[in-house]
Amino acid sequence: MIAENLTQIRNRIDEAALRAGRSPDHVRIVAAGKKQGRERIREAIEAGIRIIGHNYVQEAEAEKEDTHSAQIELHMIGHLQKNKAGKAVDLFDVIETVDNAKLAKALSRRAGDVGRNIGVLIQVNLALEPQKSGIEKDRVEELTEITRNLPNLSLKGLMTMPPFFDEPERARPYFVQLRELRDSLIQAGTLAPEMNELSMGMTGDFEAAVEEGATLVRIGTALFGPRI
């Protein structure tokens, strides 16, 4: 089932990318493994998934032996508390949810301690939803400057999670905002041109996200089916 779902998702990504005049090769799938269990995650990897995203450090820890491979990237896609920065550095290749300088500095210190270089994205709360993590849009430039100059971190780009809408088109303005924010930061020299990742779009709206420039889409239900 997961292999069939993955084929359908990739076809939809291809079509969305081509509609926008983009190469489908520039869009990667992050399989959102929240509460999916080890068996489903193994099945996804066997089907060809190469990035697994976790919302919780403890889930990633429990499934480490199934995902520990040079071919598999582990991404942290949930809120990360500063006191779990050490474990996160030990487990993940990319932290997509950096939203404050204290967390970035803690990750940098821990990565230096263990001799690793960790990829990071800055999470932006474009809708200013109080229940969601992410830095405000007008503070992104400052955090970007701090983060890109920290040792042992590799700043990759930006991430956002728009409000939930029944209609994917209602999420599109947030994807446009993130793309325009990235482009303005690159133009200003705050982001280097290669720091162009945009992690945005989930099961309900990933096609709109791809059309607006997403390079990483976080897919859970459409890939795995309902959570266990």
Structural features, described:
The chain is an alpha/beta fold and 228 residues long. The protein has a single domain, classed as Alanine racemase (TIM Barrel, Alpha-Beta Barrel), CATH 3.20.20. It contains 10 helices and 8 strands. Strands 7-6-5-4-3-2-1-8 form an 8-stranded parallel β-sheet. Helix 5 packs across helix 6. The longest helix is centred in the first third of the chain and has 18 residues. The radius of gyration is 17 Å and the shape is globular.
Order of helices and strands: HEHEHHEHEHEHEHEHEH
Quote the average pLDDT: 94
Computed CA radius of gyration, to the nearest angstrom: 17 Å
Major β-sheet strand ordering: 7-6-5-4-3-2-1-8
Query: In CATH terms, what is the fold-level topology?
Result: TIM Barrel
Number of continuous helical runs: 10
Say which CATH homologous superfamily is assigned: Alanine racemase
Which structural class do the helices and strands define?
alpha/beta
Strand count: 8
